Amino acid sequence: MNLLSFMMLYLARHPQKVAELRDDPVKLQRSAEEMFRRFPVVSDARMVTRDMEFHGVEMKQGELILLPTALHGLDDKANTCPWDLDFGRKKMAHSTFGQGPHRCAGMHLARMEVIVTLQEWLRAIPEFRLAPDAKPTYQAGIIAAVEGVPLEWTPA
Ligand code: HEM
Q1: pTM recorded for the entire structure
Q2: Is 81 in the pocket of ligand 1 (CB under 6 A)?
Q3: Ligand 1 and 102: CB distance under 6 A
Q4: Residue 85 has what pLDDT?
């Protein structure tokens, strides 16, 4: 839900990106991964189980650490022009679904949800925009959120 909110807000503000998806069903399918890279909503949390040093950082047993997955996919050392939504991106790296043994068990379902949402939305809705009086508000946390994303369009 939160990823879809970020995605729809972006698309409402970038109609040329929507046009790319309307024109090319294959590009639409491939766009899902770029959506996950660009809108990484989850931060992993961990408790340190023993005193240790990790890449020069001292960590003590019992400390809580937050690992924002955004730091990977939006790092310009990992992806060129990381803030751009580029459906033709050749090389891509992100950790939106985490890494290691706890990597998201639902990532394939999540990908399918993005693709089907885009397919069905674009089939039913003509060019759309953010309502002029909209004031989206952002919330940080373990799951980032954006609320207040009213969309408008002119019925065909
Ligand atoms: C935008 C969609 C999603 C994102 C960004 C996402 C992200 C993540 C991340 C980062 C983790 C790792 C958490 C950690 O290491 O502490 C995770 C774990 C998990 N996710 Fe997702 N997820 C998404 C959708 C889903 C869906 C749709 C399902 C199931 C229907 C799901 C089920 C799970 C489960 C069961 C785990 C725990 C795996 C484990 O601990 O072994 N996720 N997810």
Answers
A1: 0.93
A2: no
A3: yes
A4: 96
How many domains is the chain partitioned into structurally? 1
Q: Are strands 128-130 and 52-54 parallel, antiparallel or unpaired?
A: unpaired
**Residues of the domain holding 32:** 2-153
Q: Is the CB of 69 under 6 A from ligand 1?
A: yes
75-to-56, 58, 117 alpha-carbon distances in Å: 20, 23, 27
Minimal-distance CA residue to ligand 1 atom 6 = 97
Mean pLDDT of 44-50: 96
Cα(103)–Cα(88) distance, rounded to whole angstroms?
Answer: 25
Question: What CATH number corresponds to the domain at position 55?
Answer: 1.10.630.10
Q: What is the pLDDT of residues 72-92, one digit of tens each?
A: 999 999 999 999 999 999 999
Cα–Cα distance, 89 to 130 (Å, whole number): 26
Does residue 141 contact residue 51 with C-beta atoms inside 8 Å? Answer: no
Is the beta carbon of 39 within 6 A of some atom in ligand 1?
Answer: no
Nearest CA to ligand 1 atom 25: 106
